[in-house]
């Protein structure tokens, strides 16, 4: 009986967590380069009692009946033309590499600016890295042109190449600031065959309609779990109050 | 539950700022030399409830549980794209074709920078902005000047009633910044330098990297009404979806309260 309560409570908790992830997707519906998260549910193996009918023996420790994991969807968001010389978008696969105080991070958000020291940086001051993992110093004056291979030039004079890497995405971890952290053993070699677009940014890949529908589903599952908890309560109430009465 | 409420709240706050910026852009659609702004968003920190690669009973978890905390605005960026030119025939109306700012002396002696080149003459004949700030380097137009001509390189010459040959009375200079997007907008079309913009370097119009001047034109606002309308609709709907997330979280809380009779 108490197990019924716990199962319902865990299901409700999981749906609440799912809502938090969906709310985060919706809050970032207009965040440049944002990648949506999805919650996946796994039915966990719970106590032996669930496996067979009333098997005797010591009760195994209860594991939460519903386990969730999050998976980031790395599909491309729509591109939007801005006409800004320092706005970059990657068509297809790949990430820009930036240097933050916490270490090297990867990002698809290409709204770059010129930092005080003349280097290419993100609006919050992380340096954009070029080949050789060095910051790129922008040329003084002249029109900046960035080719599809990331080669940066001003009035014909080459000033470096914006580094684009294409690691396996399944081990990247979100670290805030629309950036991803790669574990140390992930290969961050320059990607070949990249398509960098100057004067465009990649919008968020959140599908608002899909997310809203999923939010409604989460609410209803939550509600069902609550009903189940109330049923458990009623059954327990019968057992306590009515069984002894003849 | 509370997490979802706060997360959606940050989304609404971010969109509100977005709408504020769009509204200001729209309000300045006819402001000479106005440069539109744009808000850049980032996602907030992620809480890792279960890191990827950890082992639970069954085996290695390929991806962990990461829950984000919403969005925030990191920067409002001025877009210094060139606005359209509007012919005025006024001899002291100037536009900069290309990079550069006019320099104006403020009351406290500091220099403000502007792209708005509709200048006037004050009672002493000095060239001033519409707010009365003196253009730097200061130029005085003689009271008997009958025509003023300003070259693309910024030389100001006048023809007076007494002498028909043009006479140079001043030389305009433009200022440039390493990062104009880092300038601090102080209103009245003026900007002040910041640590992010770097200090101004000045030079003659038309020299390496500096724009050239055209007399008798003003630079209109670079706001595109259609684009701002689309931005406004997008911001409003984004605001709405986050508010829906708050309502869902609220309903969940209500259902949770319904457990106890």
Helix-and-strand structural type of chain A: alpha+beta
Average pLDDT reading of chain A: 85
Largest sheet composition of chain B: 5 strands, antiparallel
* Strand/helix succession of chain B: HEEEEEEEEEEEEEEEEEEEEEEH
| DSSP summary, beta strand count of chain B | 22
Instruction: Give the number of DSSP strands of chain A.
Output: 17
* Average pLDDT for all residues of chain B: 88
- The share of residues in extended strands of chain B comes to 25-35%
Keyword list:
heterodimer, A: 246 residues, alpha+beta, 2 domains, 6-stranded antiparallel sheet, 3-stranded antiparallel sheet, 26% helix, 26% strand, B: 261 residues, 5-stranded antiparallel sheet, 2 helices, 22 strands, elongated
Description:
The complex is a heterodimer of chains A (246) and B (261). Chain A is of the alpha+beta class. Chain A folds into 2 domains: 104 residues; 124 residues, no CATH class. Helices cover 26% and strands 26% of the residues of chain A. Chain A contains 3 helices and 17 strands. In chain A, strands 5, 6, 9, 13, 14 and 15 form a 6-stranded antiparallel beta sheet that branches. A 3-stranded antiparallel beta sheet of chain A has the order 10-11-12, with no helix packed on it. Chain A is elongated. Chain B is α+β, with helices and mostly antiparallel strands and 261 residues long. Chain B folds into 2 domains: 114 residues, no CATH class; 135 residues, no CATH class. Chain B is 23% helix and 33% strand. Chain B contains 2 helices and 22 strands. In chain B, strand 14 and strand 15 form a beta hairpin. In chain B, helix 1 runs antiparallel to helix 2. Chains A and B meet through helix 1, strand 2, strand 7, strand 14 and helix 3 of A and helix 1, strand 1, strand 2, strand 5 and strand 6 of B.
